[in-house]
Recover the amino acids of this structure.
């Protein structure tokens, strides 16, 4: 690593372009790693060995034309975007025997679950808290997604999910062991012991029901009815909780307003809204998986997950192309048949799956089309959540008190600020678990807080840079005051990303963090699944059921792959039951 002074200078000056969260191709960046990421791995899985690898690095490497995707049905599916949602859909389909083409706008896979490197530090772009990464149960969807392409990642168990630092000096550590967490919470609210046990007890009812089921597409009737037949109690439990929210259930058992605010903070992490707006199924899933399978960090960083999935996809004979910016979805007779890139190239397939958000899919990739009723309903119930400001820093290790946890949530003075822009701060220090991510004697601080794009628009370049510096420094100062004395002076590298950064590099409308209910939702009832009103077009990712979160989008990918596989004849299907179920689901959504 360069000397400390040099690194700081680089961090603050030469690399802080308006969109400096991500690398350009001249610096130490994922670009270098991409080519090696496409190198072949030796798999023991027999079926993978039979596939001929076909790595395609960029659109320049191939000449494509209309006939390429169409005649002979070369591609069964095209996936727009390689976020975890898109990659899981693609790899699951490939594992079922489909031929898939993934088109990614950026230079590496992963979207919000990507990474970048600077001066010996390896930063996760977004997600650092990994659910679904254990080796037991049915809900370890990340482990399963990797296994489907013959890959297993080494993980480091996190002894706690998050350390909450809340108003009135309330400090709660969410221990990996459920009993330790519950005892700590009860010790802070002894008068609410019963309420605490009942609320988290309901969460376990949901988790255990989910964990007992085989997870596939809820839009596929043969599977859904089969599950009702095999696991009636579990399905009825889930159906009961499907339209409910965590806040309403918490209020049945708990009266203490401070404890209810704590439950709000628990839910805010999951959904960026309070408990009254958080679907109970999602709360149950997350608040229990962290104790059942635990939170596990992949050795080498989160970016390795997407790289392994992309490698696996290629090893199974499917393709991924980078720097492939899809600008429109091609329709024929109101059926999606292919996509067009910004360079004019066209690709065709039997099905098109969009991992862009529903706002981007219907607002940009299909902008000529009138918005279908279903999407109008979705937009009536859900708005784009604000984006976020992120600060990635390299700091001297001496600034960390002994036994510092990996993940922190900080809300200092008033519960009223929980959902306000810049109100609460998320901090991950992944080097606590995996020191290899930073040069010796250093740690990574990955800080983020909610922020709307409107705060960052209409500024001149200099003003924009100054504002980034000012806002980031305020956040850092708050962390220094609350937890890390001397933080400012321990920084050796700093990169600030704004909502504009996230809009540009993740191609998400307004840089949104994901969908957020407009009012009080009926649980998950209004959340659309993967099919759309356009024949042949499917959506996947966080604007689909069950919403935001890496494990949530992985589930969305599993569901999408199953529905598409049934539609192209790789899984059993029943067109008559399909039509009936899709109508029933549409009607249920209209009740929300
Ligand atoms: N745990 C955390 O700290 C954390 C932080 C940030 C994000 N996340 C999670 O990650 C989830 C997002 O996953 P996702 O799979 O829905 O999507 P994503 O936004 O991660 O990925 C979408 C991908 O599609 C690509 N793309 C979009 N439009 C395109 C186009 N027109 N042409 C080609 N490529 C295009 C983007 O470049 C990106 O790589 C969010 O729900 C969020 O919860 C978690
Ligand atoms: C169909 C009908 C009508 C009915 C029937 C009934 C049934 C059967 C049902 C069923 C259902 C199901 C299966 C469901 C499922 C679900 C699921 C799986 C879910 C999941 C979810 C998940 C989630 C939500 C997740 C999330 C996560 C997140 C968001 C995370 C985040 C994190 C962060 C932000 C980090 C933080 C940081 C710090 C603190 C630093």
């Amino acid at each position: 690593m360069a000397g400390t002074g040099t690194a700081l200078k680089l961090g603050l000056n030469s690399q802080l372009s308006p969109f400096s969260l991500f690398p350009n191709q001249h610096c130490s960046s994922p670009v270098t790693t991409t080519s090696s990421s496409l190198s072949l791995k030796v798999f023991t899985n027999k079926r993978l060995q039979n596939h001929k690898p076909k790595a395609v690095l960029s659109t320049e490497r191939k000449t494509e034309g209309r006939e390429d995707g169409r005649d002979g049905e070369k591609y069964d599916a095209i996936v727009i975007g390689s976020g975890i949602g898109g990659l899981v859909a693609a790899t699951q389909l490939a594992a079922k025997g489909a031929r898939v083409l993934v088109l990614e706008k950026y230079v590496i896979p992963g979207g919000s679950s990507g990474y970048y490197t600077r001066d010996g530090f390896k930063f996760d772009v977004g997600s650092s808290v990994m659910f679904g990464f254990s080796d037991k149960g049915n809900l370890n969807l990340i482990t399963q997604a990797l296994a489907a392409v013959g890959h297993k990642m080494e993980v480091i168990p996190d002894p706690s999910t998050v350390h909450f630092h809340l108003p009135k000096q309330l400090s709660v550590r969410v221990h990996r062991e459920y009993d330790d967490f519950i005892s700590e919470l009860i010790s802070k609210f002894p008068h609410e012991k019963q309420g605490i046990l009942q609320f988290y007890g309901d969460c376990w009812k949901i988790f255990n029901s989910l964990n007992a089921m085989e997870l596939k597409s809820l839009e596929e009737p043969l599977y859904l009815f089969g599950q009702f037949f095999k696991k009636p109690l579990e399905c009825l439990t889930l159906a009961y909780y499907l339209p409910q929210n965590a806040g309403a259930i918490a209020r049945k058992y708990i009266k203490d307003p401070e404890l209810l605010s704590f439950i709000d903070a628990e839910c805010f992490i999951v959904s960026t809204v309070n408990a009254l707006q958080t679907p109970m199924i999602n709360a149950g899933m997350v608040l229990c998986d962290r104790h059942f399978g635990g939170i596990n960090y992949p050795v080498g960083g989160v970016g390795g997950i997407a790289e392994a999935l992309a490698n696996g996809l290629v090893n199974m004979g499917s393709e991924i192309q980078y720097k492939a910016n899809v600008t429109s979805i091609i329709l024929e007779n109101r059926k999606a048949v292919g996509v067009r890139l910004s360079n004019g190239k066209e690709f065709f397939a039997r099905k098109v799956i969009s991992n862009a958000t529903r706002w981007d899919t219907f607002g940009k990739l299909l902008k000529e089309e009138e918005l279908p009723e279903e999407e109008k309903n979705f937009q009536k119930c859900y708005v784009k959540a604000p984006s976020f400001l992120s600060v990635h820093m390299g700091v001297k290790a001496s600034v960390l008190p002994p036994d510092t946890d990996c993940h922190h949530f900080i809300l200092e003075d008033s519960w009223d600020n929980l959902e306000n822009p810049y109100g609460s701060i998320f901090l991950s220090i992944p080097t606590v678990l995996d020191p290899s991510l930073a040069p010796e004697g250093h740690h990574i601080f990955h800080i983020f807080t909610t922020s709307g794009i409107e705060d960052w628009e209409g500024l001149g370049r200099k003003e924009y840079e100054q504002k980034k510096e000012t806002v980031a420094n305020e956040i850092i100062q708050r962390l220094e005051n609350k937890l890390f004395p001397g933080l400012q002076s321990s920084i050796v590298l700093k990169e600030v990303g704004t909502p504009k950064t996230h809009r540009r590099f993740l191609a998400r409308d307004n840089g949104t963090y994901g969908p957020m209910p407009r009012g009080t939702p009926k649980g998950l009832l209004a959340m659309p699944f993967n099919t759309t009103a356009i024949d042949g077009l499917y959506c996947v990712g966080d604007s689909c059921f069950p919403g935001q979160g890496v494990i949530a989008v992985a589930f969305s990918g599993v569901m999408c792959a199953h529905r598409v596989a049934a539609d192209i004849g790789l899984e059993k299907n029943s067109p008559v039951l399909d039509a009936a179920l899709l109508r029933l689901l549409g009607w249920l959504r209209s009740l929300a």
Remarks:
- The first strand starts at residue 77 and ends at 80.
- Residues 1-72 have pLDDT under 50 and may be disordered.
- Residues 80-86, 103-106, 111-113, 126-129, 325-326, 355-356, 360, 506-508, 514, 541-542, 548-550, 553 surround nicotinamide-adenine-dinucleotide (ligand 1) (CB under 6 Å).
